[in-house]
Amino acid sequence: MYISVFVTLVVWSSLSHLWLSASAELEKVSLRGYDPGKCNKTNHGKLIMVKDRSNPTGEYFNPAYDCSDALNKISGAKDGFYWIKLSGNIPKKAYCDMSTDGGAWALIGRKTDAVTWTVPSNNKTVEPFGKPHWSSSLGDAPIVDFRVQVATKEDFSATRAHWSFRLKNKRPLKNLLMLNEGGCGRLWPGIGDISYVKDLQTEEIVTTKFRCSQFSSHHSKSDGYGWDMLNSCLNHPCSPGFAFHKKYPVQMDFSATGASGNTSGIIHDSTSFVGCENHKCCGCFGPVGGKKNYCGTECRAKNGGTIVKNLYTWFWVRSSLPKRVWNKCMEYKVTVAQGKVVWYKLYHGNTVPVMGRCIQNDALLNDGIVVVPDSAAAQKVPPVPGLLEYREDTKRLYVRSNGTWNVIGEQKKVLGKAVEQIKPRFEQLEKKVTNEHKTDFEQLKKSLAELKSQLGSVNKSLNVMKPKVLGESCATLYKSGKRYDGVYTVNYPHDLGSFQVRCDMQTDGGGWTVFQRRQDASVNFYRGWQDYKSGFGDLNGNFWLGLDEIHRLTKSGQNVLRVDLMDWTNETAYAKYGSFSVASESNGYRLDLGSFSETTDGSNPTGEYFNPAYDCSDALNKISGAMAGFYWIKLSGNVPKKAYCDMSTDGGGWVLIGRKTNAVTWTVPSNNKTVEPFGKPHWSSSLGDAPIVDFRVQMATQEDFSATKAHWSFRLKNKRALKNLLMLNKGGCGRLWPGIGDISYVKDLQTEEIVTTKFRCSQFSSYHSKSDGYGWDMLNNCLNSPCSPGFAFHTKYPVQMDFSGAFSYSASGNITSGITHESTSFVGCENHKCCGCFGPVGGKKNYCGTDCSVKNGGTFVKNVYTWFWVRSSLPKRVWNKCMEYKVTVSQGKVVWYKLYNGNSIPVMGRCDRNEILLDDGIVVVPDRATAQKVPPVPGLLEYRKDTQKLYVRSNQTWNVIGQENKLNIEFAKLEKNLAELKTQLGRVNKTVNADHIKDKVQPTSGKPISTTATPATICSSLYKSGRRRDGVYTINPDGLGSFQVRCDMQTDGGGWT
């Protein structure tokens, strides 16, 4: 048996607001293409076609190759979204500009200010007025044209600079920027290999000499950012943008183009510019048609140029030329020095211009119109619908429509004559119908209404006579052959009577009993006990089946539960559970839910309650892109525990075990609740048996991680249980001063530097024996069992300790810190004085004296917030086959240590030459053979010394970072005339048909029209018999009784059930 819940989340209160927002957006921007416009008094009640899908090219199941392919195959294609398979076999949704410069441009990027480098890239579709980002899913797409469009408003009509580069040779988008090739120098990468630049505001080719649109200064591919990072981000997602190094917030530059020289941008003047140079970001442009350089370096204007800070930019590419810009021979002229005119031609589709003019008998392409000398030359023009052709012999302009060439002016005259001829006949028929047949129409209308009522009674009787379908559940009905979703009658157990349920026979194998469906607000679900006991709603709409029925169906326990959700954007998700049952009313309808088995993507997510991770490191290893947050772990036992995990600091994998909001340590309670980073202060008592390898203290002056002033961790020499954190008379801690001992090294997490390997004990307090019932051993005990008043109080007597208890370290070479010793950082109490103390970032002196005193320029604070973290295992992302580090000792001498084969105890010396190193988060290997030993950890960085390249692990492969990396008005008038003619013809046909009905159908003198006929077997047979209207029909396909269906008699030839 299967049980399912279908829930659709709809925020009805915000629906009107959403529509109003959409209307405001239409006023804000100039949309083109498949935009139906706003509703108004003129079009009120009318049906407007938004997009004709009769030609499925460009749809998901029949994608076009690219925007050019869609433009070629779809007659009258407009700007809008299309599915294309460019750059692979998987369909991708793209926004295509079908009008600019011949059309077929794919939108690959958009930004809403001058800064380019912080714009992310991802595999989502770039929308013309959506969120700013680059596309990362078209990296392998070959491009022949690259286009930049700059506007001062989020509106195409506000465009101020608009140009395109025609490339000499096609190249993948991921190789857009070049260095030391294609006219770009070895120090200044940019867009090179350019054949010519076209100003799309004037539609004029402004230069054929331009060589490189410089993008930025040089950075090598191994740097991990810069120009090559943009290439990479055009092929792979880059969530923070490509401005930032993994460590340093480096911001780079972007440039545009010039028309007066052969190079533009960054260190050169430009005709138009958008981006940043030397941290100054802007847009710059000149007057329309201007060919001077209006943009100087560092966002300075010249020659009357305009500088703007607030601007919007769109980036487009074209991978092939559409047929509507077919160029059998295209010629253009360029004015060079001293006003001399030089002609160039593009011949046989070649993208490289050749000096000269087209031959006299060649078909020309001039400003979007094919120019031919005579009829013979016209035969060579391809039959592209919508193509314009001018015949020099007849002096007429033709448009291609279906299989013929039509004279535009003549067609308009024909339409005008047709309208004038039809209009008198139309008026005559309209008058005749109105005056002579009004009574007949009223009588016919009344008869049809009576017939409809009679048919309704018959159908109601037939429904009552339908045999009941009985089964134990939807699952048994499915097994018996039922395959249609709907309402069925079930009887389980058999002795309690039958009832109706809704069965889903399609989802996930079918056979699901739906006990709740909530799709909109038509049914109130805020009800009392009795309604939920007996059920409410409509099984064909929104409903709750009822707890009594759910109990009857599920009490065996052998059921699977599936929960389906849909949000207001139609995004869906589901979850499945291995078993499910609801107890009887006497047991409070108790819910018994089995193990979580599957989610939307078919996975069983690590770190959830029903599939807990071992610890935070295990969750980090198994979850791609794991971030800080709450996870379920089974560390220290088999019962899942909810813990807050830090997945980023020092490699991640940290569990938060304690938090306090002042310097006092001893009065903080412990309990088995989850420690939240900004929740109530307490210690965790549920992880006492957890083995720990690292202990970490984080101290801040505000309740904010960004206000951290001291941050350090202790790497322990040997794993030990958390309940044994503090030691006495061992591990470097003396017999009178217990503390955290057995320390391998101390790491300053603000500088990520190991500051000492000599440190032995972080003294916590003065000595008290275990039998005292309070003190240091009481803290160990409270980390394993709840201590409601904290560990300052005796278990029998109201004795409060002396506010001792501190956490500290020393980087100055001292082997001990805290309480009776000086410290580099300190938080806690000593001799009734409580404080936090720290030095400058990276400082290695002792800044904290005894009794909360300061020295060496240290800082003393009373209001302090502290978080305590532990790590039980090292995540794979800090895997260390051999990790080496250096320590500066006395007189500036440098001593090297290494951590080898995962051992947490450092050994003096350096890693062998052939060993795999871990250097600052990057695995360093000498050659390919050694690289094979590196574990396949997604996101791990690997530097190969032999190739001098940086690789990143992605799925099953290592990828080199960086390498992957004005006739429109006439047409509008013509279309309007055609639409008006079509409307008038429709009205004439309607009137003629009505006249025909009057002649053929005699009134029934008020009696109902009754007919007897044998039901058809299927909608297709009805269509063959002459039925042509969509509607509800009665059929009997198998002779087992008739029933009603809806027939579609219009789509794709008609006859569809």
TrEMBL record:
Assigned GO CC terms: fibrinogen complex
GO biological process: positive regulation of heterotypic cell-cell adhesion
Compartments (UniProt record): Secreted
Keyword Transmembrane helix among UniProt keywords: no
Taxonomy, superkingdom: Eukaryota
SUPFAM superfamilies the record matches: Fibrinogen C-terminal domain-like
Family annotation (PROSITE patterns): FIBRINOGEN_C_2
Keywords: Disulfide bond, Glycoprotein, Secreted
Entry annotated with the keyword Glycoprotein: yes
Classification via SMART domains: FBG
GO molecular function: extracellular matrix structural constituent; protein-macromolecule adaptor activity
PANTHER family linked to this entry: FIBRINOGEN ALPHA CHAIN, FIBRINOGEN C-TERMINAL DOMAIN-CONTAINING PROTEIN
NCBIfam families for the chain: GGGWT_bact
Name under which the protein is recorded: Uncharacterized protein
